[in-house]
Amino acid sequence: MVASLGNEFDDMMQRLLFLVFSLIFMISTLVSTLGQAAAESVAGQTARARGIIRQRHRRFAADLDHVSYLWCVPYARKLSHIALRGDAFLWWAEADGRYARGQRPVIGSILAFRSISRMPLGHLAVVVRVINSREILVNEANWVPDTVTREVPVIDVSPDNTWTEVRQSTGADHFGLSYPTYGFIYDQAPRTIIAGRNPDTEVAEAPALPALRVDAPNRALK
Length: 222
Description:
This protein is 37% helix and 23% strand. By secondary structure, it is of the alpha+beta class.
């Protein structure tokens, strides 16, 4: 009887030890699995974060490149190689003594627009083709907001064909409102006179400051 009870006790202890070791093994396996999952999660989050950072960097870099071409000043500077700075309406005066100016369109020259209420900072357009004495094609940025437009017809509507008042095409054979301009800035030294129809081709004219200064072009341009 005593021997039978001893055997049962030994069997029970063996089962208990087995259960304890099984439980310890299960807990150890669970901890290891959770640790691996956590490590993989951290690695995945890090990789995703790096991907987001790279994507943001690419977007930021793309935006910088995008903006640099959608403003009329840097676009005209790059296209014409005329190295002037400042707001568009200041370029005519800034060109004095540095670049030739005149009233005759030449391929590669810049048509400089004056500052007016609906366009306080003026505008710059680069001549890419001369059709005749009264019509040219220009490339420009931000005349249409946030857009580069190419080979846009521009006509001279000044009384004496001096290109001091122009209208731009709005599509088909239609032209928009008239805009006053100073004339053309050429990628040549000022001693090279490009004759125009008026005698003041190379006379500097400092533009008057606009009554209202803003940090961006008027987005209501037509």
